[in-house]
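Loading example: each entry is read as two labelled lines plus one structure line.
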Amino acid sequence: MTVSALLLVILALPFVGAVIAAALPRHARTRAAVLSWGVALFSVGCLALLWPRFNDGEVLRQTIPWLPSLGVEFVLRLDGLSWLFSALVLGIGALVVLYARYYMSPKDPVPRFFSFLLAFMGAMQGVVLSGNLIQLVVFWELTSLFSFLLIGYWNQNPLAREGARMALTVTATGGLALLVGMVLLGKIVGSYDLDVVLNSREAILADPLHLPAMGLILVAAMTKSAQFPFHFWLPRAMAAPTPVSAYLHSATLVKAGVFLLILMWPVFGQTPMWLMVVSGAGLATLMIGAWCAIFQHDLKGLLAYSTISHLGLIVLLLGLGSELALIAALFHVVNHATFKASLFMAAGIIDHEAGSRDMRKLSGLIRFMPFTAALAMVAAAAMAGVPLLNGFLSKEMFLAETLAGADAHPFALLLPVGATVARAFSVLYSLRFIHTTFFGAAPTELDRIPHGPPVWMRRPVEVLVFLCLLVGVFPAVTVGPFLHSAAVSVLGYDLPYYSLAIWHGFNLPLLMSVLALGGGVAAYLVFGRRINTNPRGGPWGPKRLNGGYLFERIMTTASRGAELTVRTLGAERLQPQLRLIVIVSVVIAALAGGLTGGLTSGRGGVALAAPGGAPDLNTLAFALLWMVGGACAVAAAWQAKYHRLAAVVLMGGAGLASCLSFLWLSAPDLAITQLVVEIVTTVLLLLGLRWLPKRLDTIAAPEAARRRARRRRWIDLAVAGVVGAGLATVAYAVMTRPAVEGVTRFYVEHAYSEAGGRNLVNVILVDFRAFDTFGELTVLGVVGLTVFALLRRFRPHRDSLSDPAQKRMREASDDAAAGRSGGDRLQDTLLIPRVVMRWMFPFIILLAVHLLLRGHDLPGGGFAAGVALSIAFILQYMAFGARWVEDRLSIRPLAWVGAGLLIAILAGAGAWAYGRPFLTSAYHYVDLPLLGRLPLSSALVFDLGVVALVLGSTVLILIALAHQSLRRPREDGAASPGEGP
Amino acid sequence: MALILALAIGVLAAAGTWLLLRPRTFQVIIGLCLLSYAVNIFIFSMGRLKSAAPPVTAAGLEDPALYADPTPQALVLTAIVISFALTALFLVVLLASRGVTGSDHVDGREPGS
């Protein structure tokens, strides 16, 4: 494989694996584990293949254009540093996958777990392989997101949810800061390319903006690496499954912040602010973390705080500003990852096999799991910094660096003292971890007999502990080359002299180490009993200064503020909101009109006087039409509250007036469509009336409420008047101005020559602007489906369940008359209409076909045909009732909706076969027997889709409403599912 | 003619807006219908009024001044269908709200309760 392919594989393969794992069935624990293991091992192999290529400081780059217009490219970049981190991510990832296979319970949805884990692995790879600042931010945020999902994996556990939320809030806030910082940095340099940025140290430091940029990047690194004061999320993230803690919260995720600091070190590394902030935060974190770790009773809590402390140590080294300190930091990153991951795994084994992580309950486990105990002891010794283990070496380097930097550094004297004390603390808590868990009497408070873990669960721990030993004994041959190449890619070829030897002779660091080891052991001997029984389970110290407490306070205050804002500025009630919207739109329209002078300037302005000459008969008739129409509209507004039926009828009157106006003003297509839609709307509203509550105008309200209502009505009346007057003025002003030709000429000239149609409106709908029509079709289909879904579960309110009064009276009179039974009169009344309606069915269908076929050349078209067709069905329902119709006709409106959309898509996609864009139409005139000369175009097929969809949606809605009368509330008495628990 | 149609738009819009601001759902749905009439005619009128113009083009007569402007007509045609869909959806939401809350007030509860 080529280099670029290998690079792509180690980035993309984890994501691919994540998608596949997500698709596995819930119980496929082993399959998901094998898949993940394969992915991790294969990636490790690819990474290993890449190694020889750049062990001499080479940088591998692979560029893929991403947002070329913004100068952002997708750059994969691999150098010694990113190779080292990538090896940690993939290598420990592979071990964790193996471990997780045995740790996870088959009862949990394990494939989901592996899917998240692999996706996280991919995101981490993305961070370390990014060669572009923006790309780095994107993957950085992805790591936050997947760590959120992993911490909250046991989402039934409220602690897990809370911990996940807190981790996401803190780290994603850091990510936001990172984005701003990186954009600033990119602005300063003029490029987002990492290599360009790394080579522009002088230019960056000369710009005053480098301080905010650096500050923001530091915030991001510190939130991610759990540095004081952002450290509080890490212990709470321990609610995650232990493999997650081992992987994310010791080896990888928290090291992303460290990675960022190392990456930025060549640019900002030795500036005063960096030295102050980074070393200050590191020192504080080192001390606080170690102090808190001592008092934890939870095994994972102890390890979490110890992780915080060790991260503080690494960050402190990076803040010392010396190149040797950076090498020591790199070394400790590797060492910490190995011993901490193995310790977390050991803690997980104890939890898994003994059923508790509480050190007060655990004791004497060495009898039950001697191998695990031995492994944990070695790892803990490495953590404590016992000689011949890897932790000793990097800690020794750390002590030496604190001494070396002491005279130049702002925290001069504090450093060596603090370092020694923190080291003593780490000896104390490591000793406590081992002593309380494995030694002493057999445990009495456990709810099961502990036993050793499955062999393969222990294997990853063995590998890691073996590495601790190997590195501890032969540092130069094992990690030497990797450290060297990483250091070269950060510092360049002139590396300072450093020695990875176990023995450096008797010197001050060795003395400090011995002091710390002795002090730690002594402190445990003296205070051990008091710490082990400490009832608080936390450190002695001021509670208010706790970051978690402050975090909660901030969150509570923020949500209270949000509530207050909603209470003061929001309105729960719809009417004030609508009123405000209408008033604001009127004001904006008036302002726009005033600013552009639209109404007053221009030719003639608003000529209120009618054009000269006596009005002719035509105009008088039109005026009469609208006197009726307007009266209908006003009356409908008047009656809509108490006389709903009258309002529906009056509204129909207004609709009819507008339909006639369309006809009058040379728009027959609109008139036809408006007419059929009017019919359907009326039927719809009539069907709905049945389920509305009875409203009587005799309800007496208190005087104050009445006065308020009156005042509201006056305001609304004024608003409505202004809206009407404004719209009328604008319409009149436009209508009295000469027309603008616009696109009309194009349509007129090309309708026949290019689309083969003479009906301009229809040609626009199905040809020139067919894509718009396609969008409208989709909307209509969605509305139909929404209505169907809403009404499927809906049950009417119990008030409106009883039969209407008219029906009851009619049935009663039927029953009273001799020789008649209930429902007879209805039969009699409907006899003639039924016959008529039944026979209209075929004729309406014929009309619809006619409308469709002539649509391209003469007024008509798919919309009108579809609605007309649905009227044919409605009439059958009205005449005979839902049951009768459905016994005889199989109406499947859902299928019609789907078929309509499919036909429209196919009609459009057909153009692709001829290499034309979507929805290009072709046409051809054919002579058919009986029907005559017909235009057969692909637009007709599209129109057929329109018919099917309009028919399906309309019928779907009407049938759904009609079926309400066949329903009864559920037996349990709930009026609707909405009221159920 | 223009004046009459403008007044008609005004009356329809005023009646629609008034109903839109009323407290009962049925009033609002009638208001929406009236408002959509007003808006449809308004959009239509933007293409200027022309009575007795031929509805379809004829061969050889390709002067746009002969015909009524088809662009607003095409817009209004789809607007008619979409406003029907809107009315239908609103009606169903209205009925569902009535079924769930027992009230036909737009807020889903009677004022003062």
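DSSP finds 37 helices and four strands in chain A.
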